[in-house]
Amino acid sequence: MTFTCTADENGKKLGDILRARGFSRKLITRLKRTENGILRNSQPVRTVDTVFCGNVITVTESDTGGAAANPALDVRILYEDEHLAVFDKPPLMPCHESIKHRGDTLSNFFAAHCPNTVFRCINRLDRDTSGCVVVAKSAFCANALQKSCEKVYVGICEDMQISGGRICAPVAREKESIIKRCVRDDGQYAATNFFVAKRYGRYCLCRFILETGRTHQIRCHMAHIGHALVGDDMYGEKSELIDRQALHCAQVTFTHPVKHKRLTVTAPLPDDMKRIIDT
């Protein structure tokens, strides 16, 4: 990452400028320990040194490694530049590797697409949830994006009489399960806003905007009000129409950590969810 010191930064210590631009103290320390991690006009510089208007500062992260590359995987790229990327994660593809999933994850695709770059997933989606996944290409961008990323989900339920609402119900882990959540008084505060975007006979397409980010929040909340997502066999019932819960991250909006512009990226509805509303 390269930037030019402004008139407002003239005469300030480099460390103070980096922190004001969003670099964490932990990252600055790591950059100081990296050979040529911080340069001024292509020459090594200390964070205690004074810099001036027009000085060109270059920072280079050295951390690499992670999942093995799998160039055979195919994932649509919705947006990309040298700082970050937004992928349209397909249904049934995990974001990260696990004991049961090696070589078939978004991290494996990323390793092939961006060699020697750490996979920093900003909004991890469940294996069965499709849609927008933001991945930062540096620790600096990852830290900045965590604070600004907003998401809109869409899901399919059986048609309901209401047009939407706000579900405010605490979410807790089911005592006998590691994965499943439930609504329980001693759970964590959770709030979900939902709106019926369009009705398709027996089914309706809902939009979800989360006020909190609890595990399985949408799935748990919709089941709680008696409208579980189609195909959600954990919180509702299996469906012959789809082999997963009909849930998709349709949009992400964030402030670009380097360009400082507000960006909105959208992912089209996947084929398996289209088939439900087309029946």
Write structural notes for this entry.
By secondary structure, the chain is of the alpha+beta class. The chain is built from six helices and 16 strands. Strands 5, 6, 7, 8, 9, 10, 13, 14, 15 and 16 form a ten-stranded mixed β-sheet that branches. A hairpin with a 3-residue loop joins strand 5 and strand 6. The longest helix is centred in the N-terminal third of the chain and has 8 residues. The radius of gyration is 22 Å and the shape is elongated. The relative contact order is 0.13. The model has no long low-confidence stretch (mean pLDDT 93).
Tag the structure with descriptive keywords:
279 residues; alpha+beta; four-stranded antiparallel β-sheet; 6 helices; 16 strands
- Compute the CA-based radius of gyration: 22 Å
The helix content, as a percent range, equals: 10-25%
* Unreliable stretches covering 5 or more consecutive residues: none
Q: N-to-C terminal Cα separation, in Å?
A: 49 Å
Mean residue pLDDT: 93
The description of the largest β-sheet is:
10 strands, mixed
**What does the overall shape look like?**
elongated
Task: Please state the structural category.
Answer: alpha+beta
Approximate strand percentage: 25-35%
- Helix segment count? 6
Give the tally of β-strands: 16
Order of helices and strands: EHHEEEEEHEEHEEEEEEHEEH
